[in-house]
Design goal:
Distance between the termini: 31 Å
Helix content: 25-40%
Shape: elongated
Number of domains: 3
Number of helices: 17
């Protein structure tokens, strides 16, 4: 399989420009100007990456769809395409691997604007000639673009509003028959996982599946995207995967997010998938599943950064650097006594400002309010708001630290489902 844009794009074509709609359904003439038929489609080769080169046309002549190779195209201009040579091969057109039909496969469809992190609609496509080769140069997102061009010359500058350069575009190619193309992961990595999740949720199921398949090549990114998806889409995509594939995704998620997702799966799948998780992750998830999801225990993450009260600031910073926790959790370092009981919390900014040899016991903020697993959500939200906490500790009956709750966990629980995704993510 190939990717649709596997390499960094070369410089944008700078020559003559031509809207795709300016030649579709228009006359196809021979070198003497006599009409042969009409232009049915334009063929481009996406597998080569960059700005896809036009490799030929599909012409409709005497009711037959014929392949017209690039070297037979003499001139393309608004309103007609003129051919060279004396004869045409009258064999019917058949797709070849890596080829995309710009009208059938791209025009009128949704694409990903990687620069903006949203879906756009390809109301027209822009072709550009450079060095004697026509290439796909960009997309016109204006629904009125064609009418505007019909009033003018049929061309326009690339800087005009509504035009997006192809270097910032990622097309959906999974629907293209025989193309055997894959959406490249490299370009999706430019986006934040939340942006990718927005795209998935705004897309159709097949489009969303294509995005998820692409990020599957980066297990960490895939897990981050799944954490950002709403529950409906999480379940939708895991339903089509085997238990081992589902467990692989869950293994990369935070234990609290993995526990939430497992409870949404069909009952017969929960135990088999849970059993396939790595032992450490499985133990954390099982512990979280024992709590009511609307309590502090159900909201907390069992991952946190804790150091002994005898530790130095340098040792505490080293613990932060080596910790495999999310950035929200890393905003606070918790201090415990020799019995693992909570002694207080140290904000990361205070730790950074302290001298390396300072003892954390002398820096710790006393009076840090601790939550208990059975505290309900309203208590959690009120306590974190009252004390301006971005991360709050959860302790057991013996005051031992067992987890933390971050402010983003609280905000996510408070937001209505209708607010979780931006309406403009659809791009139309």
């Amino acid at each position: 399989m190939a990717t649709s844009n596997a390499r960094d794009a070369p410089a944008a074509p700078a020559g003559e420009r031509l809207p795709l709609t300016a030649i579709l359904n228009n006359p196809l003439v021979d070198r003497a100007g006599e009409r042969l038929g009409k232009v049915d489609d334009v063929i481009a080769r996406f597998a080569e990456g960059g700005y896809p080169p036009v490799t030929g046309l599909v012409g409709r002549i005497a009711g037959r769809r014929l392949f017209i190779p690039r070297d037979r195209i003499g001139e393309m201009r608004p309103g007609r395409v003129q051919l060279t040579g004396e004869t045409l091969n009258l064999a019917r057109f058949e797709r070849r691997q890596g080829e995309v039909l710009l009208r059938e496969d791209v025009l009128g469809r949704r694409l990903i604007s990687v620069e903006e992190g949203r879906l756009i609609h390809a109301h027209d496509l822009e072709l550009a000639s450079s060095g004697g080769v026509w290439r796909l140069a960009g997309v016109d997102t204006r629904p009125y673009g064609l009418l505007g061009r019909l009033r003018g010359s049929g061309t326009r500058p690339a800087s005009q509003s509504g035009f997006i350069d192809w270097s910032g575009i990622e097309p959906f190619v999974g629907h293209v028959p025989t193309s055997r193309l894959l959406m490249p992961l490299r370009r999706l990595r430019r986006l934040h996982p939340a942006q990718i999740a927005d795209l998935v949720e705004a897309a159709s199921h097949d489009e969303g599946e294509e995005i998820i398949t692409a990020v599957h090549g980066d297990p960490e990114l895939e897990a981050d995207v799944f954490e950002e998806l709403n529950t409906e889409h999480q379940v939708e995509f895991l339903r089509a995967r085997s238990d081992s594939e589902a467990a692989s995704v869950l293994a990369g998620m935070g234990p609290d997010d993995a526990a939430d997702l497992i409870t949404e799966l069909d009952q017969p799948r929960r135990a088999p998938i849970l059993a396939l998780l790595p032992a450490a992750q499985q133990a954390k998830v099982r512990a979280l599943l024992s709590y009511n999801p609307d309590t502090a225990g159900g909201l907390m993450s069992p991952d946190f950064i804790a150091v002994s009260q005898d530790a130095t600031a340098a040792a505490a910073l080293a613990a932060v650097k080596s910790a495999t926790v999310g950035p929200q959790i890393a905003t606070g370092v918790f201090v415990t006594d020799d019995q693992q009981r909570l002694a207080g919390m140290l904000p990361l900014h205070s730790l950074v400002r302290a001298g390396d040899s300072a003892r954390v016991a002398d820096l710790v903020e006393n009076g840090t309010p601790a939550l208990h697993p059975e505290d309900d959500f309203s208590d959690v939200a009120r306590r974190m708001a009252d004390y301006n906490l971005t991360v709050a500790p959860v302790v057991d009956d013996d005051e031992r630290l067992i987890g933390v709750i971050t402010v983003d966990d609280v905000l996510e629980a408070m937001l209505p489902d209708s607010w979780r995704r931006r309406a403009e993510a659809s791009g139309d």
